Structure formats: structure tokens, C-alpha cells
Amino acid sequence: MLSVNSYFSKTTSSAPLAIFRIAFGLLMFLSMIRFWALGWIDKLYIQPHLFFSYYGFEWIKPLGDLTYVLFFICGLSALFVALGLKYTWAIITFFLTFTYIELMDKTTYLNHYYLVSVLSFLLIFLPAGNYFAWDILRGSRKLFPQIPKWNIDAIKLLLCLVYLFAGLAKLNSEWLLQAMPLKIWLPTKEDLPLIGFLFRYDWMIYLFAWGGALYDLIIPFLLLNRSTRGVGFMMVVFFHLLTAILFPIGMFPYLMIFSALIFFNFQFHQKIIEGLRQVLNIKNRKIHLIQDTNFRHSLIIRVKIIILALFFLIQIGLPLRYVLYPGNLFWTEEGYRWSWRVMLMEKAGSAQFKIVDNASGSWFYVNNEDFLTSFQEKQMATQPDFILQYAQFLNVHFSQQGMKDLGIFVDCFVALNGRKSARYIDPEFDLTKGYDSFAHKSWILPFNE
Questions:
Q1: What is the domain extent for residue 55?
Q2: Sign of the C-alpha dihedral computed for residues 118, 119, 124 and 126 taken in this order
Q3: pLDDT tier at 140 (50, 70, 90 boundaries)?
Q4: pLDDT digits (tens, 9 = 90+) for 343-371
């Protein structure tokens, strides 16, 4: 107990947290601009007729043209976070708006969107706006050049969990023994200058597979150790710049590169701040070390620690929940999301839906293009919760056209990691009888190798 109290009493410089805040806010601001400039708001959230909701969040929907306002507020709040302007309100607003955007349609699910949400949630409880922030210059917020050490360690812990779970997820036969799905993806990059020709060789693809797994598993320890931190950071930069070149994954590589700076000591971050002061011509105000025991031991801080302890228990539990489900994880995808399983599978499929009028016995097939974009149809055809939700939509749609006693069946085939297509969903199961839940979907056919 004494060691726990001793740990939570330790303090350190606020500089690393300030630099993390600035980098995170600026990257998210640029991310919103990029999303808007590429026309993705209209393409993904306004044009579609149907949106696939997350279970439990069906009430979160795109807002029509007001979706642009949502993105504007999200981007503006990210800029305020970077500046340290109205920080508390800014980070709360960013978390709420970004997470709302993420939950509007699971067709666009990406691990790094989830990472942004959990990082912004974590930052709500950390005093990232109490040093080198606009609020300090305005005198509207107290300056804390020293903060409890656990505030920095909380970010480090989250990043370590991301890497470790990503590495553990790669310890499977698909990735290590078959180099899948890299064996599908990398040969398509042969036209890249300098390195493209290497992807013609299996040994290079296996090197990428084994190297990627090893990188994820060792990089937290390299960054945590002072003597290996420099080497570790160079590996972070090389790895994520290479993935940025090979795969279209947006701002994620740069987020991971800048996040890794949090592992460096406070002197490193203080030098960055002093450099920014000179570039921005910000006078270095005289700093008085604030010895505020309430800042470290108040009831509010204790509540924050309890909330973050629960937060980290969830972050550890979510990636492990797949063990509660039977069958092949890549096949069923039950317990797959929010578990840092990054780029581990390639699935392609087709799903043809049959609408049966139980009263007359008549039936017809649905043209999915009448209701879904090509991107939505691609995602829907390989994920069981999408298939069920789409069937529910079709049930409502055709019921409103006067067809009351309906049965909906799907003829669905899926190819996993280069295998031949196999039937995915029980064709005899009436999807109108199904319902979404966290329980195992027994109508997914078993995966047979």
C-alpha cells in the first residue's frame, strides 16, 4: 500500500503532456480538414440511404447536411485542444463529436478511429491544458509545471497496450505460417520505386509478417527503456512511414509517431517547448512551482484515478472477449472490433437476399445496389451483424410497401485470406427471426479448413 501511495505522490514535468496535447490536437485538426477536402463527408454520411449502426447505438445517425457542422465543430475543438484554449471544454467536445462521427456508421470502422476516441477520453482526465497553453497566457487557468507522474504514464500504458495486443494478435498461423493477408496485398505494390520489386519474393513477404509481429511485441519495451529509446523511436518512424507508403491508412502512422514522443524524458520536451516559444515569439513568463497537495490528493483526483482504472480494465478486457465465442475469429468476427487486430485478414464475399411472401409463396431477389453503396455492399457481404441489420432494413422497407408476412433469406459466400469461397450463412435461416445482441450468432456456418 505504501508503494502505491508513493507512486501516486510522484511528480514530473508537465512538458511531455503539453507536447502530446499539441501534436494530438494538430493531427486531428488536419484529419478533419483532409476528410472534408476529399469529399468523404458527402460520400460516406450524406449520399447513402442506409447506415449500419453499432449495437446499442442505433440512435446515433448522420445529421444530413448538418453533418458538415458536426465535422466543423470537431475540427475546431481539435484546434482548441492543440492551442490549449478552453481546454476542458475543447477536449470534451472533441471526444463527443469525434465519437459520434465514429458511431454513425460502422461501415467506416477502423482501429485508429477507435484509438482517437479512447485517447481523447483519456485526455479529459489529464491536466494537459495546464502548461504551455493559451489559457495560461490569458490567465484563465493555473499553471502547473509539475504534475503527478501517473498522468504521463497513463498515456504510455494505453500505447503499450495497443502495441502488445496488436503483436499478440499476429501470433496466429494465418499471419506467421502463411503470411496472410500480406501475400495478397504486397505483390500489388510491385510498381513502387526502389522496394517494389522485392514483393515478388515470398521471403520478403514472410520477413514483413514476422518483422511486423516482432516489432509490435518489442517496441513498448524499447521505448520504456532509456538506453534503447532512441533505437526504438527510429524503428517507430521507419515502420509507420513504411506502412504509410504501402497502405492507405490516413493519419494513423503519424499519430503513432508523434505519440511515441511521450516516452522521452521531460528535458527533451522542454527543449521543444523552448523552440516553439522562440518561433512563435512567446515570452517565457516567470514560473512559480505550485505546491498544491490538493492537485495530487483531492477527492476529484481520486475519482479520476478510479475512473481511469476502470477504463484500463475495459481496454484489457475488450481485446480478450473473443475467447467467449466459438469458431474461427476471422470467420465469425465476433469479438474482432476494438481489439487492435490491425490488417490481419482479407475477406471478399457476395450476398444475395431472397424475399419470400409467406402468404402466397411468391419470392424475388433484391438488387443490393438499390439500397447500398458499393463500399457498404462490400462490407456487408462479409460481416454477419451487417447482414442481419440489412435484412431488418429490407423487412421494414418491403413491409411498408404492403408485404406483411415476409421471410428473408441470404445466399452468402465468403473467401477468407485467399481461400476458395465457402457458404457463410445458413441459407435456411429466416433473418427476420434474428436479432442483434452480443450472443453468438448460431446461423453463421462453421469454418471448415
A1: 2-169+265-322
A2: positive
A3: low
A4: 899 999 999 999 998 888 889 999 999 99
0.90 exceeded by the pTM? Answer: yes
Same domain? For 37 and 114 the reply is yes
Do 351 and 318 reside in the same domain of the chain?
no
Report cis status (omega within 30 of 0) of the bond before 384. no
Which residue intervals of 170-228 are DSSP H helices? Answer: 173-176, 182-185, 202-224
| 158-to-36, 150, 259, 340 alpha-carbon distances in Å | 29, 12, 11, 12
Residue 124 lies in a domain: yes
Rounded distance between C-alpha atoms, residue 99 and residue 93, angstroms: 10
Instruction: Answer yes or no: do 381 and 276 share one domain.
Output: no
- SS3 (DSSP) at 148: strand
**Cell representation of residue 378:** 462490400
Count how many domains the chain has: 2
* Sign of the CA dihedral with 246 first, then 252, 255, and 259 last: negative
Residue type, 330: F
Which three cell numbers mark 101? Answer: 462521427
Determine the pLDDT at residue 292: 45
> Do 318 and 353 sit in the same domain of this protein?
no
